[in-house]
Design a protein that fits this description.
Layout: H1 5-15, H2 20-27, E1 31-41, E2 44-55, E3 58-63, H3 67-79, E4 84-88
Length: 91
């Protein structure tokens, strides 16, 4: 599911250096921190994952641009039952 325009603006602000809570406040969205969800494999929960930020039902994760980080985030995103948005930061 693609992020809403408001969530996309929050992600844009975060990518430009704003803190997640400040970016959410500027766009009128609430955010949650340290949200625990189940990761699934083959339709079954295999472990719990603590997400650093959830904004309007979207997990917000950060990548440093390395191929290893990107691959791990793709794997994690496929295992979660909620949409994942990745903010890429310069290495």
């Amino acid at each position: 599911m693609p992020a809403s325009a408001t969530v996309a603006r929050v992600l844009e602000r975060v990518a430009q250096g704003d803190a997640v809570p400040a970016a959410c406040a500027a766009e009128g969205l609430a955010c949650q921190t340290d949200v625990t969800v189940d990761a699934h494999y083959d339709g079954k929960p295999v472990c719990t994952v603590t997400l650093p930020w959830v904004v309007s039902g979207h997990a917000v994760l950060f990548a440093d641009g390395s191929a290893v980080a990107e691959a791990r985030l793709r794997s994690l995103a496929s295992a979660l039952a909620i949409p994942v948005c990745v903010v890429r930061r310069a290495a």
